[in-house]
């Protein structure tokens, strides 16, 4: 009988404050969707770092005939065969070096055509314009400066480039986007909490006579508060459910059916990462409104 009464009171409260309840559901859904998206974005960045940092090389680009005419670093002319052999021998002696791979101009041209074949300038390039290079795999990528200081001023060397530096710009951009999403999520969370408190306050005020009678007949405080807390928890759970739907749809439509077909160079997270976040989103959606309602009732449910 008591359970039936509590459930009936929950239904009454939701019907009386239908508009505000809907606003709570929407705000909770958006804030938790942003929260889940931020967690997934952070995991995506970590996955990308682990994948790409394991593949990054230090590239030593050599001067060619074209560079000798236009680049100040190549004023002594294109790299000779003796210079190439000496650079390779010195690299193989260094303890920080794991492996050394030489890429010819023909190989560089082939790789360029594979990656940028649709570029307007791709048709105007010839293999002799591409630079030969040494691709150096380091045991510790942070030791890049050792290679740079040893080879950047060598005759025949145009530039020593650390690919990790290029990736850092991408990761910094992704981390910035993640922080922006967290900021919007925090704002939406504050809005959701304010709506929950106001909804509970209005509901408690509209039923002050009933709660007064319950108090007079000896009902405990927790028994009086349960319907209000469960109303907020129910609305929050619905919002969390919609947030889970948004996350699942984002993974299915945005990642699996679009990004994976258009962006081949990124290893995207899978369904296991998304499904692992859904219970956390549901738990927060259930507990956060219930706790906010409990705190609000201590102040507004005084009869």
UniProtKB/TrEMBL annotation:
Part of the ABC transporter FtsEX involved in cellular division. Forms a membrane-associated complex with FtsE. It comes from Streptomyces netropsis. It is found in: Cell membrane. Belongs to the ABC-4 integral membrane protein family. FtsX subfamily. One of its GO terms (cellular component) is plasma membrane. Keywords: Cell cycle, Cell division, Cell membrane, Membrane, Transmembrane, Transmembrane helix. This is Cell division protein FtsX. The chain crosses the membrane at residues 21-41, 179-200, 221-254, 274-297. GO terms for biological process: cell division. It is a multi-pass membrane protein. Residues 56-160 form the FtsX extracellular domain. Coiled coil: none annotated. InterPro entries: ABC3_permease_C, FtsX, FtsX_actino, FtsX_ECD. Gene3D superfamilies: 3.30.70.3040. NCBIfam families: FtsX_actino. It comes from the Bacteria. The keyword Transmembrane applies. Residues 184-302 form the ABC3 transporter permease C-terminal domain. Its main location: membrane.
């Amino acid at each position: 009988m008591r359970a039936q009464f509590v459930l009936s009171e929950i239904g009454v409260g939701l019907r009386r404050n239908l508009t505000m309840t809907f606003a709570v559901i929407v705000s909770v859904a958006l804030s938790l969707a942003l929260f889940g998206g931020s967690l997934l974005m952070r995991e995506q960045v970590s996955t990308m770092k682990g994948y790409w940092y394991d593949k990054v090389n230090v590239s030593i680009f050599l001067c060619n005939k074209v560079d000798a005419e236009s680049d100040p670093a190549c004023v002594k002319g294109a790299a000779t065969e003796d210079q190439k052999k000496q650079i390779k021998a010195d690299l193989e002696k260094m303890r920080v070096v794991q492996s050394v791979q030489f890429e010819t101009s023909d190989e560089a041209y082939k790789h360029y055509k594979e990656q940028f074949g649709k570029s307007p300038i791709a048709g105007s390039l010839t293999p002799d314009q591409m630079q030969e290079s040494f691709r150096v795999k380091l045991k510790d990528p942070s030791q890049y400066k050792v290679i740079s200081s040893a080879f950047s001023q060598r005759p025949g060397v145009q530039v020593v480039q650390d690919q990790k530096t290029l990736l850092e710009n991408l990761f910094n951009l992704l981390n910035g986007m993640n922080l922006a999403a967290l900021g919007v999520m925090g704002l939406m969370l504050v809005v959701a909490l304010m709506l929950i408190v106001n909804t509970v306050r209005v509901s408690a005020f509209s039923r002050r006579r009933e709660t007064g009678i319950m108090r007079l007949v000896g009902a405990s405080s927790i028994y009086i508060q349960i319907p209000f807390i469960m109303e907020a928890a129910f609305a929050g759970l619905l919002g969390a459910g919609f947030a889970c739907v948004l996350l699942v749809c984002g993974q299915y439509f945005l990642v699996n059916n679009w990004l994976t077909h258009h962006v081949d160079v990124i290893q995207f997270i899978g369904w296991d990462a998304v499904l692992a976040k859904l219970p956390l989103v549901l738990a927060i959606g259930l507990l956060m409104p219930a706790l906010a309602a409990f705190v609000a009732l201590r102040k507004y449910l005084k009869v």
